[in-house]
Amino acid sequence: MGLFGNSNIGEPAIIDMKSVSIRYDNGPEILSDINLSLKRGSFHFLTGKSGAGKTSLLSLMYLAQKPSRGVLNVFGHNVNFTDRDSMAVLRRRIGVVFQDFRLIEHLSAFDNVALPLRVCGMNEKEIKKRVKELLSWVELDRHMFDKTSTLSGGEKQRIAIARAVINRPDILLADEPTGNVDNDIAKKLMKLFIELNKLGTTVVIATHSDKLITDFPYPRLHLNNGALRIYDAREGYVRGV
What is the number of alpha carbons within 13 Å of residue 208 lying toward its C-beta? Predict the structure, then answer.
């Protein structure tokens, strides 16, 4: 498809958690003693019942939260000792697809997807090329200049995904990215994630879809009562991490 170019070989661990826990205010711990190392080029589903802590774990990964205790390293940086400007630089290497999309409703599909590239100062000719190619891939080229406020939930989902991957992130974190699309579009989006992964991007997809997990048997990070376990049907193991 040629959307992403060549990946760079970098540090072996994109995200490394050692005894990480998180709580909000004075409440109970949502996540407890999480130990997890995500290598460059790995692909995992993230599963668990509603309220199990999936969103909290993702928020740690995309640097919206810091651990209540434990050590979290992202791209080799201990986030507890990383200043605000450095955190902003790290976040640019992370693509995030939120459940509520977080699009700018008064902007067009094109301008929403182009936003990360404009923030980085890319020239408009290259931006136009990349955005048109990606919107075509997610079958939204005919809505390129429509305001996102006029589009359906499934169309907004695809715009959010396109925006998350347009800057070729080192890691892609997606919260229910196929939840608002039909099976055909879901498969196409998964192919996009898989291609990105083959080029070196680490991918974590939170999902409740048993069909997605069955059709694409990648290892699964499963949260239950604040604890994390890994399931890998291909390798035939289950382990706590």
Answer: 8
Q: How would residue 178 be classed by pLDDT, with cut points 50, 70 and 90?
A: confident
CA distance 19 to 34: 5
Instruction: Give the per-residue pLDDT at 12.
Output: 61
Q: Which of 133, 164, 195 corresponds to the end of one domain?
A: 164
Residue 232 near residue 220, CB atoms below 8 Å: yes
**pLDDT for 197-232, tens place per residue?**
998 999 999 999 888 999 998 999 999 989 999 998
Give the containing element (helix H, strand E) for 137: helix 124-137
Counting Cβ atoms within 10 Å, is residue 66 exposed (0-12), middle (13-18) or buried (19+)? middle
Contact 131, 141 (CB under 8 A): no
* H-run or E-run covering 159: helix 153-165
Q: Indicate whether 8 pLDDT > 50.
A: no
Same domain membership, residue 89 and residue 27? yes
Name the band, by pLDDT with cuts 50, 70 and 90, for residue 53: very high
Please determine, for residue 65, whether its predicted confidence score (pLDDT) is greater than 90.
Answer: yes
Instruction: Annotate 116-140 with b (16+ C-beta within 10 A) or e (fewer).
Output: bbeeeeeeeeebeebbeebbebbeb
Out of 135, 164, 193, a domain closes at: 164
Q: Do residues 79 and 37 share a domain?
A: yes
Residue of 32, 41, 44, 47 whose CA lies nearest to 8: 41
Helix axes 109-119, 153-165, angle to 10 degrees: 20
Total number of domains in the chain = 2
Q: What CATH number does residue 235 fall under?
A: 3.40.50.300
